[in-house]
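Ops channel
N.P.: pipeline sanity check, posting one input/output pair.
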């Protein structure tokens, strides 16, 4: 299956939603730079980065990770990150 993650503008999967399926060095391209407040990992494992081009602090989120082990991270603390921080991400294959 193709790696897939949903990014949300607000905690608890609220606000604007962006579906990502491939390495994305610039979330600014989608008007989502420093906007991510919750994520749902649909398929695969992903790395999230503080800065564009996969730089800065990095965080791993997994299809079976998160507080309920179902890939749902309802707030940034769930991946040990900060709010409105993520600027790039890629799937780990
Ligand atoms: Ca950032």
């Amino acid at each position: 299956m193709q790696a897939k993650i949903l990014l949300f503008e607000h905690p608890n999967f609220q606000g604007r939603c962006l579906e990502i399926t491939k390495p994305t060095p610039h979330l600014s391209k989608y008007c989502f730079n420093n906007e991510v407040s919750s994520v749902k990992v649909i398929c695969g494992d992903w790395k999230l980065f503080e800065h564009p081009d996969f730089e800065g602090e990095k965080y791993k989120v997994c299809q079976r990770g998160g507080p309920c082990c179902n890939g749902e991270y309802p707030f940034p603390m769930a991946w040990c990150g900060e709010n409105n921080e993520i600027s790039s991400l890629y799937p780990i294959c």
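N.P.: looks fine end to end. The pocket of calcium ion is lined by residues 34, 50-51, 85, 87 (CB under 6 Å).
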